[in-house]
Amino acid sequence: MNVRRLIPTAALSCAALLGLTALSACGADGAGGGRKDGRLDVVASFYPLQFLTEQIGGDHVAVTALTKPGVEPHDLELRARQIVKLNDADAVVYLKGLQPAVDKAVEQADVKTKVDASTLTSMEKHGNEVGGHAAAHDHAAAGDTAAGDTAGAGEDHGDHGHSHSEAGDDPHIWLDPVKYAEVAKGVGAALAKADPAHAADYRKNTDTLVGRLGALDKEYAAALKDSTTLASRVFITTHAAFGYLAERYGLTEEAINGLDPDSEPSPARIKDLQRMAKADGVTTVFYETLVSDKTAKTLASDTSLKTDVLDPLEGITDRSRGTDYFSVMRSNLTALTTALTAK
Prior knowledge:
Number of domains: 2
Radius of gyration: 21 Å
Number of strands: 10
Helix content: 25-40%
Strand order of the largest sheet: 2-1-3-4
CATH class of the largest domain: Alpha Beta
Largest sheet: 4 strands, parallel
């Protein structure tokens, strides 16, 4: 997949070397030595996996996130001390394909328990910028998109002259509560195996989290699947982070920048979005808190549309519309329903 600018390979190698050197100087405890307080020492690659692990692990785990609040995960550059921390951990929870710098560090780390979230649910291909033209999701009729079905990437539907192309696996699985629940079950099982003394608590906490995610799924379905209450089922975002969510609830996401938030949309893509917005009754262009809103506001101004925030939940900051995963997801639902019911 196309991802953001990342730490250069040479710099990563230097960081890894520094990290391993520092690790060697720390003594002979080795990886997975455990904490003095008895808690399982877990490293999570970024916020959604940190939140999930903390909810499941409770008091039995100490979770450290590699991606600090306010840092766009795709842009993460690992420091030597983070590589040391990763090597010292009992477990690491990450999402392969989202952060190549993390993928490389995990591959090289001597950590007993490595949990790759991408293996815990099905990954799908969603729209991306290819050859200067953005691949778009199938404009299915309301109710035609079954929950969990893969969008028809590569098909020419001809609705508004959109181009469709193949793209890499979309990593944004946490924005679909059902897929996030599947990841939770896998993480819970991995923690129980790594720390069998507290397995019962991990299973109980996993069941609680899965139940809350099930309730969130029902809230989204009730608000978004009734075609009689929505004036439009199409929404525009700055980048294609909401493909899984759109599929789950029978919506269509049109992204300005595809899967890569740093890419520049072509003039043809901008014109395409302007035509589509008018044809589909789109009222709002959504931007996100960790990425510049300039392109979204320019498109909105040119088409007399509103702008609002749709948060991909890659991190929580003081600008977030909520303090955790659930509160931000509910803020997103409010923003979506407001935009899609407006005429």
